[in-house]
Amino acid sequence: MILIVSSLLDSHARVVVKVLVRRGVPVFIGDVMEFGAGAQLSLGADEARWVRADGCDADLNEATAIWCRRNFPPIFDSALRDPCDRDFVRKQWNELLWGTVCALDVPLFNHPFRQYAATKPLQLAIAREVGLRVPDTLISNDADAVLDFVERHRGRVIHKALGAATDRLLFTKRWDARDHAALDALTLAPTIFQQQIGGDRELRLTIAGERCFAAEFDAGGRADGRLDVDVPFRPHALPAEVEGRLALLMEALGLRYATVDLRIDEHGDYVFLELNPQGQFLYMEIKTGLPIADAVADLLCGPRTEAFRLDGVARGSGSGASASIGQALGAACGS
Questions:
Q1: How far apart are CA 319 and CA 36, in angstroms?
Q2: Which has the closest alpha carbon to 280: 271, 298, 270, 293?
């Protein structure tokens, strides 16, 4: 049985379920939005069981692989109004959820702790180490440092959040003179500032195991290509060197699934922007016809390989043992 940690409302999970059912593979979606709203999750010495609010249940000891697709916020009982109480309840469910998932000792795509660790600062640092081109970047809440950075790049700067918001979409924006007045609020939380990359061609990649799907679209001069949902996508032949360096990045981060954003500058060079361990792929598949859902199903049904070791304890991640960045680079260079 394949366990998908997500929500019954998640179209990505449902599309992959259809592929698995077509193959005759048992699959169960554990709906995290039901925690505290009808779901039951039990872990004991000889028991690991998930019962959904609709009564469907699964013996998690029968799981052969787990797709940690997305941890959606729960639908709280309306009587639970206090923010501290809600935070407490959410933490209890997260403790049980991820403790159970990791205790099952089956391949995880991706390991939840690896996903949380793959922050943007770490991504950028490792991307540089494996030889990917990365924009000049400042991550700071120091207004003076930001103004110096903007001046150094003559205003050609973009800015974006380090993490997603739970109540809205936050897009990447170009620096504007009006942003200067908002810098007083920067003391509250750090923000990413990056050198603006020229060119209009942007790439969206989905990496599932050893397979990498790339689609190109015209950003039309926008700082964030997501602003135009109608823009056409077309498959893109990614250079082997770039794909190899992305594989090194994935290996160093301990990930087997991710979406990646790249930009092709005015000189034709590929520039790494960011990686999302829980990124969306469905709209890219719809626009291009690339068989991404099948590739995710292949990953979940593939033969078990050696698990990552987390703090010295082997627990399933679905990937080979993580080599050091230096070793991976050495292998890529033929040493």
A1: 33
A2: 293
SS3 call for 176: coil
The residues near 11 (Cβ < 8 Å, ≥ 6 apart) are 282
pLDDT digits (tens, 9 = 90+) for 98-149: 999 999 989 999 999 999 999 999 999 999 999 999 999 999 999 999 999 9
Q: How far apart are CA 213 and CA 149, in angstroms?
A: 34
Domains, in order of start, for the chain: 2-106 (no CATH), 136-195 (3.30.1490.20), 201-332 (3.30.470.20)
Question: Could you tell me whether strands 201-208 and 2-6 are parallel, antiparallel, or unpaired per DSSP bridges?
Answer: unpaired
CA distances from 124 to 65, 116, 169, 328 (A): 29, 15, 22, 17
The residue among 128, 122, 292, 275 whose CA lies nearest residue 209 is 292
What are the pLDDT digits (tens) for 191-229? Answer: 999 999 998 899 999 999 999 999 999 987 665 655 566
Which one, of 82, 112, 107, lies nearest residue 96 by Cα?
A: 112
Cβ proximity of 317 and 110 under 8 Å: yes
Burial class (CB in 10 A: 0-12, 13-18, 19+), 189: exposed
For the chain, the residue count is 335
